[in-house]
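Tutorial, part two.
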Amino acid sequence: MQTIPIERINMNDRRFCISYPLQDDALLSSIRMEGVIQPLLILDKQPHTIVSGFKRIEAAKELGFTDIPCFVMDMDYKKAMQASIHSNLGRVLNIIEKAYCVDKLFTMDFSEEEISGVMSMISLGFYEKIIKRMRALANAENFVKDFVLQKNMTMQNVEKLLGFADHEIKDITEMLNRIHTTESMMREILQMLSIMKLKYGNIDFSAIKGMNNIYDLKRSLKYSINPILSGLEEDLSEIKNKCALPPSIDIKVDPFFEKEYIDIRIRANGPEEVKGALLKINSILDAGYIRSIFGLTTY
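Running the prediction step on this input gives:
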């Protein structure tokens, strides 16, 4: 181990870097208190190229350190890349870091067997579809990577997002950054945006950019891609509100209002609750509400 002046290390050469993001508040606090405990791994040439320890040197430089402990090694670029990956396997890699691993291995002309082995170690299957997704993500803009991490997106949703044009991705991420979404909600929104683009040739963000509520956004998108269906959903919601159904009763129709039957579900803990539910259903039947719901399914 040697103590190397930071100025002799090329911090701009990140060919072996798989860490993202490099800013780590917990690591910064640790180094502020204890210093750099785990030495960097660097190559034995001037200026030194970092193999592993990118987060540590970023934190050390921010804290004003002028030198840093290092292991200086003589190895070729493939051995260095392997060392970088293996030195990070002691922690859980996020999806961007996994993408970096895959992309760099292909960029450096590793064999399929070598790439497959690494992908297995980072819990990825060696499939063309996965490789394509990961490489696209690795080369995406940083704002996309930040968005993917912030929203904890699955690869399925990442693929949907990257399927849009660059300017559309910018608008989509800016819009969804303001809104709390679940993974299923994200999938639904991206799917509707895809349908809108397919239907109209572009996405009209002017009507949805300012929305801060996921349900308002979904309602607006549904209306844009299928105004008839959206109108039916609004009519159904209005009828159900008039029914004043208790939590133990629910009425469902086909999502596309194409089937002529409806589902009436009762949840009961005993015969008396069943009796009460049937009385309620009978009352809304007499009031004509159920007939109105059947009328929606035959549009």
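The chain is about 55% helix and 10% strand. In part three we will examine how such features are distributed along the chain.
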